[in-house]
Amino acid sequence: MKCPYCTSTENKVVDKRETPEGSSTRRRRECYQCRKRFTTYEHVEMADLYVVKKDGAREPFDRNKIKRGLLKACEKRPLGPEQIEQLIDEVEAEFRNREIAEINSKEIGEVLMNKLKKMDKVAYIRFASVYRDFEDITDFEKELNELLRKRTGK
User: Fold this and answer.
1) Among residues 3, 47, 66, 142, which one has the fewest Cβ atoms lying within 10 Å of its Cβ?
2) What is the tens place of the pLDDT at every residue in 54-101?
3) Which of 43, 52, 129, 128 is nearest to 95 (CA)?
4) Quick check: pTM over 0.90?
5) Contact at 8 Å (CB) between 67 and 124?
6) Cα 148 to Cα 6, 123, 135, distances in angstroms
7) 15 with 22: CB under 8 angstroms?
8) SS3 44
9) Which bin fits 14, alpha (ψ -120 to 50), beta or left (φ > 0)?
10) Dist. CA 15–CA 111, nearest whole Å
11) Structure-derived torsion over alpha carbons of residues 101, 96, 81, 78, reported in degrees to the nearest 10
12) CA distances (Å), origin 16, targets 2, 10, 11, 40, 45
Protein backbone atom coordinates (compact mmCIF):
# COMPACT_ATOMS: atom_id res chain seq x y z
CA MET A 1 0.00 0.00 0.00
CA LYS A 2 1.48 3.34 -1.05
CA CYS A 3 1.42 6.32 1.27
CA PRO A 4 -0.74 9.03 -0.33
CA TYR A 5 1.66 11.70 0.99
CA CYS A 6 5.13 10.45 0.08
CA THR A 7 4.34 7.30 -2.00
CA SER A 8 6.48 5.08 0.21
CA THR A 9 5.32 1.47 0.33
CA GLU A 10 6.63 0.99 3.86
CA ASN A 11 3.84 1.41 6.43
CA LYS A 12 2.20 -0.33 9.33
CA VAL A 13 -1.40 -0.93 10.39
CA VAL A 14 -2.09 0.88 13.67
CA ASP A 15 -5.83 0.13 13.92
CA LYS A 16 -8.21 -2.27 12.20
CA ARG A 17 -12.02 -2.25 12.45
CA GLU A 18 -14.94 -3.83 10.68
CA THR A 19 -17.52 -1.39 9.36
CA PRO A 20 -20.87 -1.57 11.23
CA GLU A 21 -22.58 -3.47 8.40
CA GLY A 22 -19.64 -5.91 8.21
CA SER A 23 -19.13 -5.41 4.48
CA SER A 24 -15.63 -3.98 4.70
CA THR A 25 -12.57 -3.61 6.89
CA ARG A 26 -11.17 -0.19 7.78
CA ARG A 27 -7.42 0.01 8.39
CA ARG A 28 -5.64 3.01 9.85
CA ARG A 29 -2.03 3.02 8.64
CA GLU A 30 1.11 4.97 9.49
CA CYS A 31 3.90 5.58 6.99
CA TYR A 32 7.39 4.69 8.25
CA GLN A 33 9.01 7.34 6.09
CA CYS A 34 6.91 10.52 6.60
CA ARG A 35 5.06 9.34 9.78
CA LYS A 36 1.69 10.52 8.44
CA ARG A 37 -1.44 8.44 8.92
CA PHE A 38 -3.99 7.42 6.32
CA THR A 39 -6.99 5.12 6.07
CA THR A 40 -7.63 2.24 3.68
CA TYR A 41 -10.70 0.06 3.19
CA GLU A 42 -10.89 -3.56 2.12
CA HIS A 43 -14.09 -4.74 0.41
CA VAL A 44 -15.20 -8.08 -0.92
CA GLU A 45 -15.42 -7.85 -4.67
CA MET A 46 -18.79 -9.11 -5.81
CA ALA A 47 -19.31 -10.76 -9.17
CA ASP A 48 -21.10 -8.51 -11.61
CA LEU A 49 -24.82 -9.13 -11.75
CA TYR A 50 -26.82 -8.00 -14.77
CA VAL A 51 -30.54 -7.46 -15.25
CA VAL A 52 -32.15 -8.46 -18.55
CA LYS A 53 -34.97 -6.02 -19.29
CA LYS A 54 -38.22 -6.77 -21.15
CA ASP A 55 -36.74 -5.49 -24.43
CA GLY A 56 -33.66 -7.73 -24.03
CA ALA A 57 -31.33 -4.91 -22.99
CA ARG A 58 -28.84 -5.71 -20.24
CA GLU A 59 -27.87 -3.34 -17.44
CA PRO A 60 -25.93 -3.71 -14.19
CA PHE A 61 -27.96 -4.68 -11.12
CA ASP A 62 -28.80 -1.45 -9.29
CA ARG A 63 -30.08 -1.69 -5.71
CA ASN A 64 -30.86 2.02 -5.74
CA LYS A 65 -33.35 1.54 -8.57
CA ILE A 66 -35.16 -1.11 -6.53
CA LYS A 67 -34.98 1.08 -3.44
CA ARG A 68 -36.61 4.02 -5.23
CA GLY A 69 -39.52 1.84 -6.33
CA LEU A 70 -39.97 0.35 -2.88
CA LEU A 71 -39.81 3.75 -1.17
CA LYS A 72 -42.62 5.01 -3.41
CA ALA A 73 -44.72 1.92 -2.72
CA CYS A 74 -44.11 2.16 1.04
CA GLU A 75 -44.72 5.90 1.34
CA LYS A 76 -46.86 6.67 4.42
CA ARG A 77 -46.85 2.98 5.34
CA PRO A 78 -45.43 1.47 8.56
CA LEU A 79 -42.40 -0.02 6.78
CA GLY A 80 -39.25 1.88 7.72
CA PRO A 81 -36.03 2.40 5.77
CA GLU A 82 -34.32 -0.41 7.71
CA GLN A 83 -36.99 -2.90 6.66
CA ILE A 84 -36.73 -1.78 3.04
CA GLU A 85 -32.93 -2.13 3.12
CA GLN A 86 -33.29 -5.59 4.65
CA LEU A 87 -35.75 -6.59 1.93
CA ILE A 88 -33.35 -5.41 -0.79
CA ASP A 89 -30.47 -7.24 0.94
CA GLU A 90 -32.50 -10.47 1.00
CA VAL A 91 -33.45 -10.21 -2.66
CA GLU A 92 -29.93 -9.34 -3.79
CA ALA A 93 -28.45 -12.17 -1.71
CA GLU A 94 -31.00 -14.61 -3.14
CA PHE A 95 -29.91 -13.81 -6.69
CA ARG A 96 -26.19 -13.68 -5.92
CA ASN A 97 -26.40 -17.08 -4.19
CA ARG A 98 -27.67 -18.58 -7.43
CA GLU A 99 -24.25 -17.88 -8.91
CA ILE A 100 -25.67 -16.69 -12.21
CA ALA A 101 -24.58 -13.54 -14.01
CA GLU A 102 -27.95 -12.48 -15.42
CA ILE A 103 -31.43 -12.15 -13.93
CA ASN A 104 -34.65 -11.40 -15.74
CA SER A 105 -36.25 -8.14 -14.54
CA LYS A 106 -39.60 -9.93 -14.34
CA GLU A 107 -38.16 -12.41 -11.85
CA ILE A 108 -36.80 -9.60 -9.66
CA GLY A 109 -40.21 -7.96 -9.62
CA GLU A 110 -41.99 -11.20 -8.74
CA VAL A 111 -39.61 -11.96 -5.86
CA LEU A 112 -40.00 -8.40 -4.54
CA MET A 113 -43.79 -8.58 -4.78
CA ASN A 114 -43.96 -11.93 -2.98
CA LYS A 115 -41.87 -10.61 -0.11
CA LEU A 116 -43.71 -7.28 0.00
CA LYS A 117 -47.07 -9.05 0.04
CA LYS A 118 -46.10 -10.72 3.34
CA MET A 119 -44.93 -7.42 4.84
CA ASP A 120 -47.62 -4.90 3.85
CA LYS A 121 -50.58 -5.53 1.53
CA VAL A 122 -51.11 -1.84 0.64
CA ALA A 123 -47.45 -1.38 -0.31
CA TYR A 124 -47.70 -4.61 -2.29
CA ILE A 125 -50.71 -3.31 -4.29
CA ARG A 126 -48.91 -0.02 -4.96
CA PHE A 127 -45.78 -1.81 -6.15
CA ALA A 128 -47.77 -4.30 -8.24
CA SER A 129 -49.75 -1.50 -9.89
CA VAL A 130 -46.57 0.02 -11.27
CA TYR A 131 -44.72 -3.23 -11.91
CA ARG A 132 -47.64 -4.92 -13.68
CA ASP A 133 -48.65 -1.67 -15.35
CA PHE A 134 -52.27 -1.57 -14.19
CA GLU A 135 -54.29 0.31 -16.77
CA ASP A 136 -57.59 0.83 -15.01
CA ILE A 137 -59.59 0.11 -11.87
CA THR A 138 -60.44 -3.43 -12.99
CA ASP A 139 -56.77 -4.39 -12.73
CA PHE A 140 -56.77 -3.18 -9.12
CA GLU A 141 -60.02 -5.00 -8.47
CA LYS A 142 -58.63 -8.30 -9.78
CA GLU A 143 -55.54 -8.03 -7.58
CA LEU A 144 -57.56 -7.05 -4.51
CA ASN A 145 -60.00 -9.91 -5.07
CA GLU A 146 -57.06 -12.32 -5.31
CA LEU A 147 -55.71 -11.03 -1.99
CA LEU A 148 -59.13 -11.28 -0.33
CA ARG A 149 -59.70 -14.79 -1.67
CA LYS A 150 -56.35 -15.97 -0.27
CA ARG A 151 -57.10 -14.32 3.07
CA THR A 152 -60.52 -15.95 3.44
CA GLY A 153 -59.37 -19.24 1.94
CA LYS A 154 -62.05 -19.33 -0.80
Assistant:
1) 47
2) 899 999 999 899 999 999 999 999 998 889 988 988 888 888 888 788
3) 52
4) no
5) no
6) 68, 15, 21
7) no
8) coil
9) alpha
10) 41
11) 100
12) 17, 17, 14, 10, 19
